[in-house]
Amino acid sequence: MAVAYIQEFPIDIRSTENYDFVAEKIGDGPFEGLIAHTAGFDDDAGVFRILDVWESKEQAERFLAEHVGPLMTLGPDAFPNPTTAAQPPTRDGFYELHHVVSPARAHAISS
Fold it and tell me: How far is CA 106 from CA 1, 100, 102, in A?
């Protein structure tokens, strides 16, 4: 079943330095099961939001464990902006999706 994975970080400094650092280390994929990845500022909510759509929660968890987890174990001082890197997300989790339309994959996924 398709899932969304969401992380939100408070906008303390309007900077993408740490996000860009992680994205550069991880690369653009392709990553098994990733349907879409988005990241951007939601000024109305006061957050920088990362939202991914995955074919399954297991694939997302594997990606996080293999690619993101090792970078997080380096600690805040390894990041360009250690102060904001030390702040945990205010929202971090999964939810199941009822319907996904992905033009890039030319098919729909429904539960």
Answer: 17, 11, 6
